[in-house]
Structure prediction request, 73 residues.
Amino acid sequence: MQMEWLVWCGAGLTALGLVIIAYCIAAAIRVRRANLPDVETRSRLQRIVYLNMGALLISALGLMSVVMGVFLA
Prediction:
C-alpha cells in the first residue's frame, strides 16, 4: 500500500510520454504534407525528434517507476 503512489505516478508519466509521442507523430505528418523546402523540413523534423526523444525518456522513467512500485509493494 505504501508504494501505490509510485505506481500511479509512474503510470501518469508513461501516459504523458505516450501523449507527447502521439503529438510528435501528428506533427511529423503535418510537416511532411506541407511540401516545404528540404532545409525547412529537416529543421522542423529535427526539433520534433528532440521532443520525441524526451517523450521516450519520460515514458521509460514512468515504466521504471511502475515496475519499482510493484516490486517494492
Observations:
- The chain has one domain: 4-72.
- The chain has a mean pLDDT of 95.
- Helices lie at 4-33, 38-72.
- Residues 27 and 36 are 14 Å apart (CA to CA).
